[in-house]
Amino acid sequence: MIEEIFAPLAPAGAPAFGLSDDAAVYDPPAGRALVITKDVMAAGVHFPAGEDAGLVAQKLLRVNLSDLAAMGARPRAYTLSLALPEDRDEEWVGQFALALAAEQESFDLTLIGGDTVATPGRLTVTVTAFGTLPAGSELRRSNARAGDAVYVSGAIGDAALGLKVLKGELPDLAPEHARALKDRYHRPRPRVSLGPRLTDLANAAIDISDGLAADLGHVCAASGMAATIMAPRVPLSEAARAAVAADPGLMTAVLTGGDDYELLFTCAPDDAPAVAALSRELDLPLTAIGQVAEGDGSVRVIDANGRDMVLGDTGYRHF
Amino acid sequence: MIEEIFAPLAPAGAPAFGLSDDAAVYDPPAGRALVITKDVMAAGVHFPAGEDAGLVAQKLLRVNLSDLAAMGARPRAYTLSLALPEDRDEEWVGQFALALAAEQESFDLTLIGGDTVATPGRLTVTVTAFGTLPAGSELRRSNARAGDAVYVSGAIGDAALGLKVLKGELPDLAPEHARALKDRYHRPRPRVSLGPRLTDLANAAIDISDGLAADLGHVCAASGMAATIMAPRVPLSEAARAAVAADPGLMTAVLTGGDDYELLFTCAPDDAPAVAALSRELDLPLTAIGQVAEGDGSVRVIDANGRDMVLGDTGYRHF
Is residue A155 domain-shared with residue A200, that is, in the same domain? Predict the structure, then answer.
């Protein structure tokens, strides 16, 4: 199966030798360090057991690319492990491989190795993704500094609202908004162009997978800092604005829902003009939503009336 | 859980940053290429569902190190993914991590990243292992040449016989032999010292995981060659010799059983003295068992009477 379905995804020469050997050989360009990330996704945990093969493939790869972007790395290659339930048919695997091929094209990366086993258990897929960056330039969570501005890319909350649409919890939303939100849930857009451009600019960065508040909390905890963000400044898509206008209580889901796969980064306030220029160049909103201060890892969220919002335990689940 | 149990396995600085970031950064030494291999193992497929945590950890890592050795790479680091059934207790995970720590010590490698999820399905563990070698020196399956001698390291067949012992199929074997064979099944000994020494010497190499005959077949198919091996020359441990002496039919299991994790390599006949010197230096038997010739990927096995052995479809299962 590997030979027929997956070998065409791998180049015939180095590094993967068409998946014909025991291992792949990867020779990073001179002066570049390799960035390595890994995500495992299991049916029934990260996606419903009956999920479309193409959506699983897309999400799996893009979640990994988002991690690379958060470190400032450019994606290059990946390896794939599949534990396939015995009742998965070849058609499912074929669709999965077809979607991977399209992703490789979109993101300019190649399959360099993998392993497939049949399992009596659930479908479990693991990707290890490889990126490169100038040695020593990686972005960390732990370097946020007092006085830094907190920025996010794109728009926040679409995926969490899209999940609510899929669950039938937002029946009154206009169809085009419902479609847009569902699409953002199904198809993360990893900020692969932005990440490598931040290595000279940002002090700390993370991708938003657990939710804006939680991931900013991770940065604060790792940096030994605290942060305050202004909820009204958090950028929303047109669809999310419509949903929140109809039910302001949804703002909690926006701030705490996961699966955004936008980048959150902090940088010195003096760099605001450089951030604005980068935003124009990439045609991607980069919005200042708050500030870093000395502190103990805590995150405050201030609402439009200047009051602290209590977000509570959000218990975000990925589906 | 990751923080408490696995973070101590990862260095606080680069490349893993104590597992605190989205990804690991790995900067191979100058002039070294990175070799990457991946194995996924699932409960009920590669090991029994109730297998000891330490044995799972050992086998998982060592199988990957064997793949690196087959390419000629020195092991350096690994990432780990765990899909943990909800009923696995912390004690199991703790034992698993403890065994990994001991393996890291034995093989001089570090954990640089990973991902853990709870799953309603079976335990599935994936390791991606990283090794390094001088750029361009990797050993391939596909470079065997007509006239090459076929060598194997160590002794062949112990793991397959050990599995038979575990299944109660060899009740008359002396207890010390039974113990030795079971141990070889449970604890592969990846030839990490030998592999990197073969890059200057061997034309083709592979590790024996599917069985001697099948893996030599892989080399022949990839190289567009054929091979003939002499069954009486295949090196057996004392325990395996005792088992085969009692039941000569077991020789088929020796030649076709998997999980040996010895290295099979081919090299020019003129290099015999260099192979012999290397064997003495590493204190590891390296035994010539046959020859490569022009051909179509086939493997002939000749018995003590000069007759072709018919090995048939062996259907080796890993437990």
Answer: yes
